[in-house]
Amino acid sequence: MEYSLVCHSLYALWSSPVKKKLILLSIMFLIWVYMLYSCVGYCSTMPSLVVDSHRGKETGSAVGKRTESSSRTDLVSRLLAKPQPWEDIESDYEEPSIRTAASRDLLNNELETDRADEWDEMRGEQQRAPEPSAMSSFSNGSGSKKLPQAIIIGVKKGGTRALLEFLRVHPDIRAVGAEPHFFDRNYENGLEWYRELMPKTLEGQITMEKTPSYFVTREAPARISAMSRDTKLIVVVRDPVTRAISDYTQTLSKKPDIPSFESLTFKNRTTGLIDTSWSAIQIGIYAKHLDNWLQYFPMEQILFVSGERLISDPAGELGRVQDFLGLKRIITDKHFYFNQTKGFPCLKKAEGSSKPHCLGKTKGRTHPNIDPEVVQRLRDFYRPFNMKFYQMTGHNFGWD
Q1: Is residue 158 part of an annotated ligand binding site?
Q2: How far is 295 from 208, CA to CA, in rounded Å?
Q3: How far apart are CA 306 and CA 159, in angstroms?
Q4: Cα 8 from chain centre
Q5: Which of 162, 296, 322 is nearest to 236 (CA)?
Q6: 20 to 30 Å CA-CA from 272: which of 6, 179, 308, 372?
């Protein structure tokens, strides 16, 4: 009898239109509160950028605390150090032994330019950052922060930002926006500091980051290997001559008073001796840098993406990357359109947005006119290193 009364009461409660609406509203309110909580969890993983409009200064919490004077001194001292001799290729070009004052000034300019461009990229990301959808908020509010399983380690001015932006469309890839520079500038902060920079991920999702300077940092391979020997590495490479000019163009955009490209390229213009102490030249000796990485990682764990094909066939290159990461090929031709003005492919829909997205103003700068003889001399210089790189990777990138 009591059971029947209870059932009758519950039925009466549910059958009442007013009470039914109250119950449904209560359930919807609880769902809304949980989604709000999830959104807070998502926002906490985003790198923050604080701009002081009165002083014109910028600070970023995503890259942690920095002691600018000491970290810059350490980085400059490492880059100014004499490169280790590389015996695989005989060449008539001398290794640098002493850098001039002008070279040191240029190096400081390049470091400042790199950081300025990083802030520009972060500002661009925040300006286009959409409100997360209900599903993305739900998933990102849970999960945990993990050390990256895959890292884009290079190269500067090769197309790393484009690759990362394209990859972030994939639902199983979560990537930090700002470059952490952990394995070159901030290693003393420890792995827990590094982990805290990463976004939260669910089971089956991959955590990624990109810092192009890792590829040319001598200590980076050992440090990444110490973190995890299973880390997958991605390197975006580009014609080293075009890359060097692009590198110079970036510095020139911030420091218009720097010496000409031609004067920086040669130690002695009469003899045609290339100045390999200039980082814009040194970065493009890919085979030399790869040799350092192969001391710690097998070739099977390194994927080389063509910067040229990333422009001409983005879906094809993204397919290779998704295969390398063990992910389903979700990013396809339907995600891209070619922007004739910028000369680059753009996303029809960016991550979490319904609007098209192209890379910011720091990408696709117009290159200055360079003396064709200088360009040819550089091609002659890089040719033996390119051939060695083709042999090491088993892929002809067609730069010669």
Answers
A1: yes
A2: 23
A3: 9
A4: 63
A5: 162
A6: 308
- The single-letter code of the amino acid at 127 is Q
Specify the pairing of strand 232-237 against strand 150-154: parallel
What rounded mean pLDDT belongs to the chain? Answer: 78
Residues with Cβ < 8 Å from 105, sequence gap 6 or more? Answer: none
How does residue 338 score in pLDDT terms, banded at 50, 70 and 90?
confident
112 in Cβ contact with 58 (< 8 Å): no
**Whole-Å CA distances, 153 to 9, 220, 298:** 66, 9, 15
The whole-number pLDDT of residue 271 equals 87
Contact 167, 318 (CB under 8 A): yes
Q: Is the pLDDT of residue 72 over 50?
A: no
- Read off the pLDDT band of 44 (50, 70, 90): very low
H or E stretch covering 265: helix 261-265
> Would you say 157 is a known binding-site residue?
yes
Domain segments of the chain as ranges: 144-243+280-367
Was 66 annotated as part of a binding site?
no
277 is in an annotated binding site: no
Q: Which of 192, 187, 214 is nearest to 147 (CA)?
A: 192
CB atoms within 10 A of CB 25: 10
Helices then strands, counting H and E runs in the chain, come out as: 15, 13
pLDDT at position 14: 53
Of 21, 65, 82, 157, the active-site residue reads 157
**CB within 8 Å of 385: residues ≥ 6 apart:** 89, 240, 284, 285, 286, 287, 288
Q: Which residue has the higher pLDDT, 397 or 93?
A: 397
Question: How far apart (Å, rounded) are the C-alpha atoms in residues 2 and 5?
Answer: 5
Q: Topology of domain 144-243+280-367, per CATH?
A: Rossmann fold (3.40.50)
Mention every residue, 6+ apart, whose C-beta is less than 8 A from residue 101: none
Note the Cα 337 to chain centre separation in Å: 21
Whether residue 190 is annotated as binding a ligand: the answer is no
Q: Is residue 157 annotated as a catalytic residue, yes or no?
A: yes
Six-digit token pair at 315?
Answer: 């879906």
The H-or-E segment that residue 377 falls in is helix 372-393
- Judge if pTM exceeds 0.85: no
Distance of alpha carbon 305 from alpha carbon 237, whole angstroms: 6
Exposure of 308 in the CB half-sphere (CA atoms within 13 A): 10
64 labelled ligand-binding: no
Residue where the block lists tokens 């004499």: 82
Share of the chain above pLDDT 90, in %: 55
